[in-house]
């Protein structure tokens, strides 16, 4: 689930109305202070599950040592965080952040339908990682940044071949990446459903409390152990046809109707229903950033999605990051082995 460090006062839920377009929103929890309700899920992960919910970034200098900096989801999503870092270094690129292809929110009935399909879907635990420590418990205080991290990169020539391969197959680069990651993960996963979470940038049709705030819905992509990039691409397209990204955006902002208390109840119930493990991991792609240096990016991971995969293309180079949650890895051995398999599965 989502979480943040936002200081939001508890408020009794005033309505269980679905947050579909056109519905009347409740006032913020604190008068005069807008609330990033999407980010508030991260607050619950931090408070209830005691997770570290920072987004990690590092300049890719070519050396073996990587120096990470972190920005919290309290104020930022991945794109907003990187833009903020670049602005602070005088490297702000001259183009605006990307926007969703759709220009407006779905209509009332379409929004209700998407939300109902999302709420009524079957929630079940995803497959465990074989390295899961069954005795692992969250610490008494929130976790620090993890060190089970690996990075990888394709040079410009291999990146071009990767992009050409996606075009030749008729799939997006995201589909090619996610399919390769799922196949690479197969030896490390137990039997069970394999569900990856993929954030979706909702900028354009929606407007957050600031340009850098959380603007992300997500889709859930079930992937068979041997699914090809074409099959993964079909699954992703199907999720967009069902407007799953809109359903999750509305759901992530449901706090504007039910408040902090209602969100806490949903957080606990959902984690019980999925035994705390709704996804095997998250893959987030920040797209193309040119003229601002080369960067590694990690979206973070929690017990609920224990493998975080970050993707970004800088100056013609595909840069990859994997981070494993401490419940499945204590050092970089697992993410490094998975990184090598991931790059090999790209086949370029």
Terminal CA distance: 34 Å
Q: Would you report the number of β strands?
A: 9
Quick one: overall form?
globular
The biggest sheet amounts to:
6 strands, mixed
- Number of helical stretches of at least 4 residues: 9
At the fold tier of CATH, the topology name is Chloramphenicol Acetyltransferase
User: What is the SS-derived class?
Assistant: alpha+beta
CATH superfamily: Nonribosomal peptide synthetase, condensation domain
**Average residue pLDDT:** 87
Quaternary organization: single chain
The percentage of residues in β strands lies in 15-25%
What's the CATH architecture name? 2-Layer Sandwich
Radius of gyration from the CA trace?
Answer: 19 Å
Query: What number of structural domains do the residues give?
Result: 1
Describe it.
It is a single chain. The chain has 348 residues and is α+β, with helices and mostly antiparallel strands. The chain has a single domain (37-346), classed as Chloramphenicol Acetyltransferase (2-Layer Sandwich). It is 34% helix and 17% strand. The protein contains nine helices and nine strands. The protein has helices at residues 37-48, 78-88, 108-120, 156-169, 173-185, 229-241, 244-252, 255-273, 333-346, and strands at residues 54-59, 69-72, 149-154, 195-201, 216-222, 281-289, 295-298, 307-314, 317-324. The strands form two sheets. Strands 3-9-8-6-4-5 form a six-stranded mixed sheet. Strands 2-1-7 form a three-stranded antiparallel sheet, with helices on one face. The chain is globular. The relative contact order is 0.22. Mean pLDDT is 87; it is low at 1-31.
